[in-house]
Amino acid sequence: MRRSPPTRRKSLVSAAAAAAAAEASLRDEKMLKASLRSKQHLEGPLRKYTNLLHGWQSRFFELDPDSGRLWYYLSAATRGQQAPRGALSVVGARVCSSPDHPFMFTVQSRAGDVYKLRANDAQDQEIWMTQLQLCSRRTSDCTSKTTSGLTQVKPGLNQD
To answer: Which residues are CB-neighbours of 60 under 8 A, at least 6 positions away?
Structure first.
């Protein structure tokens, strides 16, 4: 009985595995893009620029598409225990990527408040920016809920 050389067998298996991995990656990418098209509740860590003295600080953010608000807390642990550190209305906001730092983007509300934010990687940046832009564009949905008094932010919360 004659056997094929092991290197040829390995290369066939490697090629099949690579093709399967590429197909799975493409499927995951299509699912991600499809999910990004609909507005979703989003939460997770981002870095927020506070000021020259303190620079970039890690914060836990929550995007509520129903209220049109981007809330942030000192950490995920303080989220359920303390009031939000700050909030920004994203209804009609401008969301732009920034070349200043890797994975950085800005959110400027209609009132002029600006959050400078950084994601952990390009995929997180894309997810956050897309969801913020979707909520920003859905002005009629978000405005009716934010102006009804459902979400109140105390003055001075946007300190850091």
So the answer is: 43, 44, 45, 72, 73, 74, 75, 76, 78, 79
Tokens for 4, please give them: 């094929």
**pTM of the predicted protein model:** 0.65
Integer Cα distance of 70 and 136 in angstroms: 11
Number of Cβ within 10 Å of residue 86's Cβ equals 21
- Where do we find the tokens 């952990």? 120
The amino acid at 94:
R
CATH topology assigned to domain 42-153: PH-domain like (2.30.29)
Residue 129 burial class via C-beta count within 10 angstroms: exposed 0-12, middle 13-18, buried 19 and up: buried
| Residue 145, Cβ density class (10 Å: 0-12 exposed, 13-18 middle, ≥19 buried) | middle
In the 8-state DSSP scheme, what is residue 158?
G
- Please calculate the CA angle 107-119-101 and round it to the nearest 5 degrees: 80
Q: How many residues does the chain have?
A: 160
pLDDT per position as a tens digit, 105-115: 999 999 999 99
Among residues 74, 50, 48, 70, the alpha carbon closest in space to that of 60 is found at: 74
